[in-house]
Design brief:
Distance between the termini: 32 Å
Bound molecules: S-adenosylmethionine
Number of helices: 10
CATH topology of one domain: Rossmann fold
Strand content: 15-25%
CATH superfamily of one domain: Vaccinia Virus protein VP39
Order of helices and strands: HHEHEHEEHEEHHEHHHE
Structural class: alpha/beta
Radius of gyration: 19 Å
């Protein structure tokens, strides 16, 4: 597979709050095996953790539970996402929330034992993100960056959805890949090609013990939840409302004709490294 780096449209980083509740209700979370892998690697001791781009808390909630009393600071720029995050972590006194972009947040005198970003690292300024992470971490502190893309399990449904996407001029939708096309290499999927953090981190040179891992997990979405998921994806949010509605209606018709939902396999791809 050729690795090319397509620039991201950073304006799309600001669309999630438009549908914060839908996002929270329909998006997949992250498995406990990922959380324990990250925390074992970080070996925090009494150092705090920080999360960039916490959204509504899909990763925050299981991390905060696993952290027990250890402090977790969440940085999230969108006040509407942060409001849902606040509700989802109301029973977690170890969680604090800072509303603002990660690029404008300062760690002050605190140096963290772990910085993690779930499906959000790609929205940080590529020219500054490794400096920001380096400055926030204590020596030996861990970085954990992860995504949970999915592949469609049924080739017939995949072909029918691809036809809808073609008709609406959509590429790299969440159902654009068959699960079998992911192969075995973490970070090796079309939406990520050229963006997997390993090369950038290696080139930076201030981090060590680089690892890439994958955890697979199957899931079923009924039609309504899957449409909510699509409606929360930046690619669909960037469409004019009438085009988005038509694309979602045609997708719903295909799902309903295939039993009323979609079976997918999430590929929870995780990158780890630590400050030297
Ligand atoms: C796809 S969502 C992921 C949310 C959550 N981590 C999850 O896994 O569901 C991307 C998140 O990154 C946030 N984000 C965008 N730009 C950011 C920035 N400059 N600094 C920190 N977070 C940012 C968005 O507001 C959004 O909540």
């Amino acid at each position: 597979m050729t690795v090319s780096r397509q620039p991201l449209d950073m304006r799309r980083s600001k669309v999630f709050g438009e549908v914060a509740e839908t996002y929270d209700a329909s998006r997949a979370g992250y498995p406990s095996a990922l959380v324990s892998t990250v925390l074992d690697y970080a070996d925090l001791g009494d150092r705090p953790a920080v999360e960039s781009g916490a959204g509504t808390g899909k990763a925050t909630v299981p991390f905060a539970a696993a952290l027990g009393d250890s402090p977790l600071l969440c940085v999230e720029p969108d006040a509407r996402m942060a409001a849902v995050l606040r509700r989802n972590t109301a029973d977690r006194p170890n969680v604090r929330i800072h509303v603002g972009p990660f690029e404008e947040w300062h760690p002050g005198d605190t140096r963290f034992g772990l910085l993690f970003a779930a499906t959000s690292w790609h929205w940080l300024d590529p020219d500054r993100r490794w400096d920001l992470v380096h400055d926030a971490l204590a020596p030996g502190g861990a970085v954990a960056l992860f995504w949970n893309p999915q592949g469609v399990l049924d080739p017939h449904l995949h072909a029918a959805l691809a036809e809808v996407d073609r008709r609406h001029g959509l590429t790299i939708t969440p159902h654009a890949e068959l699960s079998s096309s992911y192969g075995d290499t973490p970070g090796h999927w079309p939406g990520m090609l050229g963006h997997w953090p390993d090369a950038e981190c290696r080139q930076d040179g201030r981090f060590t013990d680089l690892r890439s891992l994958r955890i697979r997990e199957q899931a079923h979405y009924d039609t309504d939840r899957y449409l909510g998921h699509l409606a929360s994806v930046s690619l669909y949010r960037a469409l004019p409302a009438d085009r988005r509605d038509r694309a979602l209606a045609d997708t719903a018709a295909v799902l309903d004709a295939h039993g009323g939902g979609i079976d997918v396999e999430h590929h929870h791809d995780l990158f780890l490294s630590r400050r030297r």
